[in-house]
Please model this.
Amino acid sequence: AALTVCDPARPVVVEGESSKIGNILIPPALWQAMQAARRIEVTAPLAERARYLARAYGDIVDDAKRVSALIERLAGLHSAERIAAWQQRAAEGQMIDLAAALMEEHYDPAYRRHRARLPVADQQLALHDLSPAGVERHARDIAALI
Model:
């Protein structure tokens, strides 16, 4: 439904993570268009991303049981010691540290493996301020690239 309001004459910025997000499958025609589109790789320092994610996912961060259950879903992919360390950070409310550890030890390596199978980005953009005002500025920077 969200795609029906897009103007085909104007660029659309999407995160090209995967053709499947959770149980949701990206429509094949959209996925093909994404594969053919220009790629802009956006990077930011780990600490800045961790602060951003702890803020952006406040609804999850505020639900200790949900955080614990999400960490448990990674148990088959990581050692018991690593899972326990993540669980301890969550139990102690160290959500920024937890976000940094999850990115550094789980998500970033997975994304690197995934991106290794894709064409190289056409352009790179390094972001340094993911505060609400910084995100707004960076959104304008990205829009200027397209």
